[in-house]
Design brief:
This protein has no helices and 3 strands. It has 45 residues and is mainly β. The chain is elongated and about 45 Å long. Strands 1-2-3 form a 3-stranded antiparallel β-sheet, with no helix packed on it. The N and C termini lie far apart (30 Å).
């Protein structure tokens, strides 16, 4: 399993937050699968 994170700079005091994560893994048939989680709602920060 491996993952790739994407961070975004809020532009305030050098604060970075996780915007998305892609998780790559092999299924039972050794086929590569990707799941992407997107965290777009940052207005509460």
């Amino acid at each position: 399993m491996e993952y790739e994170d994407n961070f975004v700079d809020l532009g305030i005091n050098n604060i970075w937050v996780l915007e998305s994560r892609i998780i790559k893994f092999l299924d039972d048939n050794n086929k590569v699968n990707e799941i992407k989680y997107i965290f777009k709602e940052l207005s509460s920060i």
